[in-house]
Design brief:
single chain, 308 residues, alpha/beta, 7-stranded mixed sheet, 6-stranded mixed sheet, 23% strand, globular
Length: 308
């Protein structure tokens, strides 16, 4: 009876991780699983202003983030990865905005698992559900080409295909004129990156170095999980003398003590603190003994992180 030594608080996060890696079809057809996502407030709800738009950070599950993107001029709203529809609708009503769009980064249950309930509980016009994978519930717009642009109110959103964590992963780059943000799901985290569940080190190199690193350094990064502290500690393991990592870790630890979310980061900061964004730096390559081969560095770093 080993389970008697564990509390539900111990078991639930492990259960969520198992569910998040399963195809949505298994989840939908398994009556013994949760009928709806459970929501825990692991962080406070905060709002970040960006001139023409704002982003409300909505915590969900044990460490997930959802994001309510609001166009200030049209009061139109989009939700990124609405795994907890009740929290989403509460935010929509409090902000007095019209939800029109769902931006799904990938099909995993802890990101797309709330789509069906959100759609069924919607009383306004049909929601546009955007994503890059036919395993996503309620999908109405399939993004199968990198760099597709669409207009959201007064904002432009570019869909960046970043396959690796899943084959259909999409990051959403929002350009509001002077301000821009990117929603990176489980491709890029603060200080880290997602596991290569359905892809390769070459694909993650392409996603992080050839695509996301090319965005303006000032671009705010809103990722899919609150993994910052563990990622930054890994970064210090790789580069113990990197003072940017140490300073960021201290800042994040202060935030987390107050239940403030660590997000957003920026592309510029990630280039300084994130070993997976630094695979072309010799200081990182020396750790993995892969000098001159950034893709092999990416592979070795991920293996090292997985085994720690």
């Amino acid at each position: 009876m080993l389970l008697q030594f564990f509390t539900i608080t111990d078991i639930f996060p492990m259960f969520i991780k198992i569910l998040s890696s399963l195809p949505s079809a298994i989840i939908k057809n398994s009556s013994f699983l949760l009928q709806r996502p459970l929501t825990t407030m692991h962080s406070n709800i905060i709002t970040k202003e960006f001139g023409k738009f704002k982003v409300q950070v909505l915590p969900a599950l044990s460490d997930n983030f959802m994001y309510l993107l609001i166009d200030n001029s049209t009061k139109e709203a989009a939700i990124v990865d609405p795994v907890a529809p009740d929290v989403v609708w509460d935010a929509v009503h409090k902000e007095n905005v019209k939800l029109t769009t769902v931006l799904t980064t990938h099909h995993h249950w802890d990101h797309a698992g709330g789509n069906k309930e959100l759609i069924n509980s919607n009383t306004n016009d049909q929601l546009t559900v955007i994503g890059g994978d036919d395993r996503i519930d309620g999908l109405t717009v399939m993004i199968d080409t990198h760099g597709v642009d669409f207009q959201f109110g007064s904002l432009n959103i570019k869909c960046l295909r970043t396959p690796c964590h899943t084959t259909g992963h999409i990051c959403y780059y929002v350009n509001g004129g002077q301000d821009d943000v990117v929603f990176t799901g489980d491709t890029l985290f603060l200080g880290g990156c997602g596991r290569f569940f359905e892809g390769t080190a070459t694909q993650m190199y392409e996603a992080l170095i050839k695509i996301l690193s090319q965005l303006p350094d000032s671009t705010a990064v809103f990722c899919g999980h609150e993994y910052a502290i563990q990622n930054l500690k890994f970064g210090l393991h790789v580069e113990p003398s990197n003072h940017y990592i140490l300073n960021t870790l201290e800042d994040v630890e202060t935030k987390r003590k107050l239940k403030e979310p660590s997000v957003p980061s920026t592309i510029g900061l990630e280039k300084l603190i994130n070993p997976f964004m630094r695979v072309e730096n010799e200081s990182v390559q020396k750790v993995t003994q892969t000098v001159g081969d950034p893709i092999e560095t990416m592979k070795m770093l991920r293996d090292l992180k997985n085994n720690l």
